[in-house]
Amino acid sequence: MSMARLAQERGVNVIVGSVTDIEYTESTSTPPPATPPPSDNMTPNGPPSPTLSSASVNSVPSSRNSRRKVSGIIYTNTQSGTSCTIPATTVILATGPWTSKLYPSAPISGLRAHSVTITPSSPVSAYALFTEITIPPTPQSPLHSNQPPNVVSPEIYARPNNEIYVCGEGDMEVAVPETTADVQIDEARCDDLIAQVSSISDNIRLGRVTRKQACYLPILNVGGSGGPLVGETGTEGLLMATGHSCWGINNAPATGKLLSEIVFEGQAVSADIRQLDPRRIL
Ligand SMILES: Cc1cc2nc3c(=O)[nH]c(=O)nc-3n(C[C@H](O)[C@H](O)[C@H](O)COP(=O)(O)OP(=O)(O)OC[C@H]3O[C@@H](n4cnc5c(N)ncnc54)[C@H](O)[C@@H]3O)c2cc1C
């Protein structure tokens, strides 16, 4: 929201709502195919295929939707609850793990990750810790006594205002829900995280847990690439910025800059992002 506020200060009309559909009309122009980068070996939903060469990518239409063009979006206004339409010639889909709900052919799924925030018992120094903590087995029966110890890797970040943020590994047990408000939190996973980091810090153990939460990060289901997908989709006027996996915070400024170049200058100029071209896999 703070980014939206900054944009508003510069004159952008920010509307908060939930997009329910993208509207299309027939396109008269044929969009150019994606230019494959030198080593193109991406295949949707599977490992790299030795038979999918750059030439074969070039010879197929750049998108199943290449005869459509964007004409607007339909959304439900968060404040009024009414359904409205915004006519548009350019739409950028930046809906993370929810991308395929609006654009079903996008091979994007969600990985759930739990996190907690803690007020430590006394202030901590400004470090981020990428841990490997060995949890000894807790034998409940003689059968368990030979189990190897479990190694877990919670990440611990010092935040302003005497807060610590801890996040753990992802799981795919619960599919991406309709909205962020419907994300299911597995309290036991949060408690595991708290126990893990408490085992290496008295400051955390004696601190106060202030939040238990979970969220999804967008995963690209394509062999040979970890994503993201940034650029044109092959549907005229529809662009995409998604599939950032666990690097979306880091990559956000570059993604935004490159998208603005594509929209306003016709192509990405500050980096060669052919490898990220969504048209190669959509
Ligand atoms: C625990 C955890 C730790 C992480 N740590 C790091 C890190 O240290 N560094 C890093 O770089 N990255 C990190 N990431 C990854 C990073 O958070 C993601 O890569 C990034 O948030 C993806 O950004 P996005 O904008 O594509 O998607 P999101 O951040 O998921 O944003 C998508 C937005 O679209 C909205 N939306 C969805 N559908 C609709 C709709 N129909 N209408 C309107 N709005 C809609 C959602 O409400 C959401 O606000 C972490 C992720 C997790 C879960």
Automatic annotation (TrEMBL):
Q: Which residues form the FAD dependent oxidoreductase domain?
A: 69-261
Record region (Disordered):
23-68
Top-level taxon of origin: Eukaryota
Where are the compositionally biased (Low complexity) regions?
53-64
Task: List all Pro residues biased stretches.
Answer: 30-50
Q: Name the InterPro entries on file.
A: FAD-dep_OxRdtase (IPR006076), FAD/NAD-bd_sf (IPR036188)
One GO term of the cellular component aspect?
cytosol
As recorded in UniProt, coiled-coil segments are none
Pfam assignment, any one? DAO
Q: Name one GO biological process term.
A: retrograde transport, endosome to Golgi
Query: Which PANTHER family does UniProt cross-reference here?
Result: OXIDOREDUCTASE TDA3-RELATED, SARCOSINE DEHYDROGENASE-RELATED
Q: Give the protein name, as stated in the record.
A: FAD dependent oxidoreductase
